Structures are given as structure tokens and as C-alpha cells.
């Protein structure tokens, strides 16, 4: 799917790909592939252009055919879930607010100021707010996934790792493409990009995406008290548009790249299904249907998202040094309203069916005002000797306003607003950093990284309207302010040794942290609803081998790791008391291994096979959390709270496995290809406590595509058919636990066709 021709014979989801610095052209992959060998791969995992086989970091990438296949079917960024070793992605908001988990470390907090231990960097600018992280993936050259702490070069909130997106950059060569796919649920996906030289020094590229799906989920809640809220096709649809405009100036000793990007989403939130689990099991109830809900407020469900941002990257070539300035601005605006309980009947109807509930929850969250400013200055040495370094300073500022609303449990056209809370959070952070490389010999290199970070937050919350007839505090009650701050010295030390021309081994130890977090659940709280989690710190040990095999036709990279995280920030979500609180666990221990492999089996057959194992365990004898209203808890319970000491982390599968294969053959004047990919993840816990219902089953999803590509004149053409989740696996991938056993379900099978034209 899309851009297939550019990398049809050299595929990988596991090794990072050729990196693009400003003005640097990508070499063609066909030259190596024609000889039955894999391309030489370079990365910018350490903000330098380096051979991935010589970098002492566990790096994987999504690129080329694999990236295009995964992101087909108009998928949002959650397509990355279990497509890379040790990486999981989920959301309770739908196409926005993705939550990333790496090596088991993540954050299930659903507040709009939630921080995560996995950072997202797009075109060299950090995307801190969770709404920014959901920007659509289109016209992207590569996605690099850096596992393990990345706190020296990339910042304060990277103790678990980093996901790095790099868009296709402008070039002097005129090129572009347009693709259109159509598939299940009347889904369309249109993508186009065009670029080229405007003058001898200035080039530009414009990229555009539009994804549409009709509402297809029916509301079949029965009439109650004369109110009719049965509707056809009320949920599940969206129109998602995104734009990126770039200008690149290339001089003799100065380059400048300007990037403007924007998104406009008009759709529906994630769909919640009430009482979807059979009591005492994690099976879905008999007769469960993805396209049917029983909501008492489906008509009012909506999700409106607007984001925009701009960045300016300046590179000055000073001979022995390169000076880089990266200035970024991001802004987000969202309003999302949903029937969170997923059912109907409250507060009058007894529990008598799979969709009936006793406590109704129709809520909305909004960001009416948001601005993020970042600035990085970096000096990089270009010495020809054994010693090189980079050093710099970083500044981050974010002003954020959040509104939360609740609505009365009335049916039909009812649902008047009953609660209103405003939160304000201002964050200021700065850092100085350095990374120093020294070649001990021709075979051995050592790297030391250091970063001092300082983080300050100013937070306030006020409830202007109290829900549920004032049961939770009083209107116009100010809940005061909190002002957490912290500083930390992150560091890493690594050694790389070349055993021979084809095999490198490395060892790395790294320390990093995540700054304090704040949660203001003041809407339904009996007290002020504010909780603060102190900084978490991690110490990680990793060693691995990176090898080229089969005379350059194969690549196998493997590593093992062990980490200890102190004061891990966790979110106690929901429970029958309907509370959500931040807390710190004394210690979390994790260990495992990851294997990335890629082979050109023949000149026509490319295969990748990747696997990861992660074991995580909470060690805190005094930690406990509220439990569900109706589920079957398997932990020890004391006074309605589960003892979670010894539990694994939520959304942390022990096993992830990925297999892809692509076969090409010449047919007539063109090339035909057959492609398949399969992804497996083992079972997961949805929450910190363990229960029968909220243990997510293991999930196996497969995709296929077949297409034909040919050249005609100055253009290349491609037609294809494809399928995602072709076995139509149907199971819960998330849940809500406060009033009933509500489920979030994975995407069903999708079938579609695509036409693409590329011009040069």
C-alpha cells in the first residue's frame, strides 16, 4: 500500500532506516537488493547519522511496505500496537490520545494533562500533550522506536523509550504521489504529496490526508418512559484531515527547514459496550455485535479535534562544528463527549440485560486553550580523530487549560449539564546536555551522556458547577493550587565492540526520570480530587549483538535487558468508587529480551521475524487500589481495595511476535507482489488489579495485500487489494470498571482496494 515501489525488495519493521538530515538525499534501496543483499542502514537515534549496526541502542523501525500496510484501512496511530518488539499502543479516546507502553512501562491515565514515560518526537519536536500524539501518520519516511531510557539527548519524560517520526523532506527533484483507497464501512483514504525545487537553493513539499468513514453502529436501547433513543448509524464514523507544508533552503554552509502542520478531526469517540463480558470470564457475551450498542446518549456523542504547529530547523556548517537550532510551536483544541458507561437505564431500571446499567456516566472533556513552545540549541563536533561530542541546551514551555463536564442521566433529548470544572497547568522545563564519544581503538568505542533537567509545574483547579445535585462538594469551590518541581541528572554509559566485520556487541547502562505529574479529578470527587505523583527514576542495563549474516542477505539483532524503576507513577483508574488517582509504587522490576531479524531469502522474497519477551513486577507491600463494581477480582482484597504487590503492569504483554513476508515477480511490463503480516501479543491486564473479566485475551491479527505496479511514461502506477485483521478476531482490548463491565473492542476485519500514481 502506498510508496510500495520505492522499497519493494528491502523491507524491515525492525532495523532503523536511512536517516535524513537537512538536505541529505536517501539512496535507492534497489542497488543493494538487486544483489540479494540488505541495504546499509543508518539512523539518527543519537542525533548523528550512524550505521544502525554500530549504535549501542535497541532500535526498531517501521518503514516502506510494512509501514504502508499497517497504516492502511484509514487506521490511526494505534496501528503500531504490537508491530514492534516491546511496544503496545491503546486509547480510550479513539483516534486521539494514544497511550504508548514500552517494555511494559506506560501510563493508563486518561486526563488531558497526562504525561507518559514513552516520549513522541515528530520532525525533531517533542509532542508532550496526549492529544498531539494522535496526529495522523502520512507521507512519513520512517518511524524509529528507541527502547530503553533516552533521557540524555531527548529529555525528561523518556524513561521507557522514544518513538520518533520523520516526514519525507523536500528535495530539488520534482516528485509526488496520489493514492485513494476504498473499503469496508464505506471508508475512504486519500493521500497526496508533491514537491520539488522552487529555485536552485529552495525546495518545497506539501502533503495532505483525508480519511472518511460513515457512522455504522446502531443504537438499540429500548424505549424507556416514552423516550425513543433507538437510532441507526449513530456511532463509529469520522472525517479526519491533515496537512503538512515544508520549505527547505540549502546553502553552501547553511540549511533551513520550515514545517507547518495541521489536523481537523470531526468524528465520534471510542465506542463503549456495557456489560460486554460474561460474568466470571473474559469471554464476550453470547451474541455480541460490534455494530450494536445500547446507549442513552448516543445522539450527543462527538469528538472535535483541531491541532496545528510549526517548526524551524537551522543548521550552520562551521567546519569542525555544526550548530543546530530547532524552534517548535504546537497547539491543540479538543471537545470530546461520550456515553462512558456504554449502556442505558440509570437510575431507574434494574440490571436485567447486557446493556442495562445502574449508574449513568455521560461526560465530556475539552482543551479550549493550549500552547507549547520548545527551543533546542546544539553544537556537534565533526572531528576526524578519535574524540567527538555534542552539547546543547533545551527549553520547554506549555500553557494548558482543561474543561470537564458532566450531564444528567436523562434520556432522548435530555442530558443537561450538571457539572463543570476548569483546570489550568503551566509547565516550564529546561536542560543542559552533552554526549561524548571516544574510540579506544579501531574496534571499540565508548560513549558517555549527561543531562541536567529542571521541571516546574503550576496547577490550579476550580469547580464551578457540582454534579449529581451537589453530592460532591459545592459549586464555585476553589480547590487551591499545587506547584510540584524537581530536577535530575540523567546519564548513560555505553561500549560498542566490533568482533569482526559482520558482528558488533554492545553494553549500555542508563539512568533517566519522568517529572512529577498532576491529576485533577475534581468533577465527581468528594474531596479536592487533586493527586500528585513524584518523579519516577529508572536504572537500566542492556547488552546485545548486532550481526549481518548470509553474506549480507540477512540481519539478526538481539538484546537482553534488566531495569529497576523507583517511585513509578501509576494511575488507579475507576473502581466502584469512581475515583482516579495518581500514586507512586516503591519499585518496579522488569527484564526480557528482543530479537529483530530480516532476510532476503531470495531476490524475490523478503521476510522479517521479530519477537520480544517482557516480565514486569510491582514490588510494594503497602500499595492497594479500588476495585471494580461487578467483576471477579483475583487479587487479595482488603476493605474493598486490591493488594497489587507482585502484579504485572497494565497493558504489558509478556510476548509480542511479528512476522512479515513479501514476494515479488515480474509480470508483463510490471511487477506483481504478494504480502502478508501477522502480529501476536499475549494476554494483558487492563488495570493495576487482576480480575477474570479484565484480563485481555491474547490477540493474533493478520493482514494481506496483493498488487501490480508498472511504469508508463514519467509515472508509476499501482493497483492493489488488501485486508486487515483478516480472521476477524473479536475481543476486548480495554475496559471501564466503575459501574459495570464495559468493554472497548478491537477493529473488525477490513477489506479494501487502492489505486496509486507516483510521478517524477
Automatic annotation (TrEMBL):
Cell compartment(s), UniProt: Cell outer membrane
UniProt signal peptide: none
Keywords: Cell outer membrane, Ion transport, Iron, Iron transport, Membrane, Receptor, TonB box, Transmembrane, Transmembrane beta strand, Transport
Pfam families for the chain: Plug, TonB_dep_Rec_b-barrel
Chain ranges of the TonB-dependent receptor plug domain: 52-161
Membrane topology of the entry: Multi-pass membrane protein
Domain TonB-dependent receptor-like beta-barrel as annotated: residue spans: 268-680
Keyword Transferase belongs to the record: no
InterPro entries: Beta-barrel_TonB, Beta-barrel_TonB_sf, Plug_dom, TonB-dep_rcpt-like
PROSITE patterns attached to this UniProt entry: TONB_DEPENDENT_REC_3
Family: Belongs to the TonB-dependent receptor family.
Protein name per its UniProtKB record: TonB-dependent receptor
Gene label: fyuA_2
